[in-house]
Amino acid sequence: MKLENKQFELKDFASEMAKLKNDKHFDFLVTIVGEDFGEEGLGSVYILENTDTHERISVKAVNSDRDNACIPTVSNLWKGAEILEREVYDFYGIKFLGNKDMRRLYLRSDFQGYPFRKDYDMSPENNRYTLEDDPEPDYTVEYTLDKHGKLTETQHKLFTDDDYVINIGPQHPATHGVLRLQTILNGEEIRKIYPHCGYIHRGIEKMCESYTYPQTLALTDRLDYLSAMMNRHALCSVVEEAMGVELTDRIKYIRTIMDELQRLDSHLLFYSCCAQDLGGLTPFIYGMRDREQVLNCMEETTGGRLIQNYYRIGGCQADIDPNFVKNVKNLCTYIKPMFKEYEDVFTGNIILRNRFNGVGVLNCEDAISYGCTGGTGRAAGWANDVRKNHPYDMYGQVDFDQVVLSKGDCMDRYLVRMEEMKQSVRIIEQLIDNIPAGDFYIKQKPIIKVPEGSWYTSCEGSRGEIGVYLRSDGGKNPLRLKFRPMGLPLVSAMDEICRGEKIGDLIAIGATLDYVIPDIDR
């Protein structure tokens, strides 16, 4: 969608945002985008959704004082805003008044400057690296304005002298990557979790500002590599929408089928990793065995298995392989009986049911407040599927069920994904015999330029909504490119989900949240 930002005076910002949430039911904070508006100042763009009507709006907040830029927090309205505001603070130095955890999110605590600002000095002399340990403070800072309008800070201790603190990760295999969860325990019971991100932060969004639009595509497969197709789909779509590119039906069919093959690939790996985390070797092998069949179908067309590198601005890199239709149909025939096998060997297992039932509950209200989209939100009763709420390509013309459960525990998060695999096969079977003739690529100019303006487009990834915010000044490089990660809201909700559970349940909860760390770190 093209963004037409509402803008409020900073003195009225908190009350106006409260009205949008409480009076107009914009209860889903999709994302917060930090921005350097140049002479206008530093600020943020907030994208909000009404979960009843699925209407979306954007709000812009700007502070002209670049040296002491501050904006009132909205973390009191949306729980997920706390970590999103930390991300903006980390890269832009904007202080969110009233946010109780204004620490850096990705960069070291001793990092100098704010690298996403347009005036940040990136010369080698200003960028000194160290192999010393990060001197992490044991407190966080809350910023407020006193009665004279002067910025003041209050320190809050993270731990007391009596707290027993352990680190789960960043090297623990069950964190599914280099994520560190600083965990306070009372015996075996979890009292508090502080997530630490940034161990593989690569600055992809910053890199995109110096890349041409086709060059940025190469980075999307390196985000959530199990949603590589959907990541690139979202980026291509936002550029195509901004440029007014009309795609052929053949392109839409191919992209929809490829997206669902990618979803099958991801959910099969989810099934395997759930089994592995709980000590089940046989279902792990079953899932990996069948995932190979999915990857074979994709590889014959894209040439890749993990990094697909297939979608382009205007269509696809190449047409589908001559054997693609036959092999995909064979895959559907092969894999449907396997779903029953998964249920027999793992879903009905008494160990799995004891470890999953009633564990790690996230209710619907909190799922929306944190922005936990995808299977995590749908397991809690929130019908958030982008394919249904904001249809794109062929999703508005195929028949499939949005899988929504109600308990919001580990078991329902697991069952949602198991059922979604069946729905993916159902979508593929409706399309695979009906791929129309036509162009697989709409030729673009050698140098792609996007008109001036701001847009936001999203797709349904394997773990939720993957969105792309684009601001262009009319040139060949994006002025700002922001990816909405699927995993960051899941990590921000870890403390809420795990508090009061046993330390052993943390592994089961992490497995069913199904986050992928490069998507979080970017």
Automatic annotation (TrEMBL):
Keyword annotations of the record: Oxidoreductase
EC numbers, comma separated: 1.6.5.11
Source organism superkingdom: Bacteria
EC class: oxidoreductase
Protein name: NADH-quinone oxidoreductase subunit D
Naturally occurring in which organism (per UniProt): Palleniella muris
